[in-house]
Amino acid sequence: MKKITCLLLVVFLAACSAKMNPTQKDVDRVSSRYEGYTLEMLLEGKQLYEANCTLCHKLKSPKDYSEEKLNKVVPAMVKKLHKKKGSEVLDAAAQESILRYLVTMSTR
Ligand code: HEC
After folding, report:
1. Ligand 1 center to residue 14 CA distance, Å?
2. For position 3, what pLDDT does the model report?
């Protein structure tokens, strides 16, 4: 029984850390779609997402959403954020950066 608990914990931790850390592999997977995409850009998207998208709810896992869904949800959420903040804290490039990060990680 202890062994199983231990094994589950290891699998769980591995799954968590994999989710949190984008790697070059993730970039390679989407490189045909996002020309010139780099790990640095992916990490910037992650950072923007984590810094701006926890005002109203916890971070949503990208894996729970399709690309189609994210294409609709992210612009709507950025609008919500701007309304709440009372200013346009994210420009179009930042919004695209967040969207690309989420789409990339959703297909992992
Ligand atoms: C002003 C408040 C607010 C901010 C800021 C905000 N959200 Fe949301 N978000 C909501 C609400 C309300 C919901 C619906 C209830 C829920 O799922 O928690 C939601 C739901 C979501 C969902 C699930 C959508 C669905 O249909 O299942 C995603 C994904 C999401 N937000 C992403 C983001 C991202 C990305 C950002 C940053 C750009 C962000 N949110 C910022 C309020 C906000």
Report:
1. 26
2. 75
Choose which residue among 47, 58, 59, 60 to substitute to test ligand 1 binding: the one with the highest number of ligand atoms within 8 A of its C-beta: 60
Ligand 1 atom nearest to CA at 98: 35
The CB of 96 under 6 Å from ligand 1? The reply is no
pLDDT top residue among 6 and 77? 77
> Mean per-residue pLDDT for 87-91?
98
Rounded-to-integer distance, Cα 56 and Cα 22, Å: 24
pLDDT digit string (tens) for 34-73? 999 999 999 999 999 999 999 999 999 999 999 999 999 9
Q: pTM to 2 decimals?
A: 0.87
Residue found under tokens 């701006």? 52
- Please report, for the chain, the start and end positions of each structural domain, with discontinuous segments joined by +: 22-106
Distance CA 40, CA 63 (A): 21
State the burial class of residue 97 (Cβ atoms within 10 Å of its Cβ: 0-12, 13-18, 19+): buried
